[in-house]
User: Fold this.
Amino acid sequence: MAYEGPGLIGEVLAAAGHSFHLIRTDLGDDLPEINQMGAAGLDGGIGGLVVLGGPMSVHDSDEFPWLADERKLLAAATEAGLPVLGVCLGAQQLALALGAEVTTGDRPEVGLGTVTLTAAGRRDRVLGPEYGGLAGTDIPCVHWHGDTFTLPPGSVHLAATRAFPHQAFRAGRRAYGFQFHVEVTSGMADGWRAYLPEGVVLDGSGLSRVETTGRRIVQRFVDLAAGS
Assistant:
């Protein structure tokens, strides 16, 4: 969707000198072919995937046929060892693609909040404070979801909340699913205002903390994707 843009992910990629192509499946853009994936993006291949959010469910494939094709692409990219990041719906898509189950939670989780890192999350190269550069075991973020997922077989559980225990996972070395949002900028939050439930506000110091921490997390993922 238009308001689910790359935010900090695009900013960090551009600042690091990496090019990326934004695909709008909601506008009919075609997904890349699986055979276009290449090691580190060599020979014109895909160097990695970032799959963002949207208002639909992973189970809405009859209405949105591209959902099934996106899952095939995510599974193939993960199998190939490419860097993959799924955010919100993208995390649910990644989880389902890797053999997990996606269901509806007891109630939606929406607004400014935090996720708590697991022991493995605290040691993780992208999320963990033990790797350096981040403080504490609670990550400030934006929540906006009603669905949840089980953990894909063989994945590592990285973060949780009380209402939605599976908030982040890593599959292999470079495939990550974040149920929560750390890519939100103040500009994105302004664009979301008309779509948020009544009473939910994204601004002030809470949003500033999300941006500050989110930029560090995204930078870590980009560094990992680049092999540094």
Residues 39-43 have pLDDT under 50 and may be disordered. The chain has one domain: 8-226. The domain at 8-226 is CATH 3.40.50.880 (Rossmann fold).
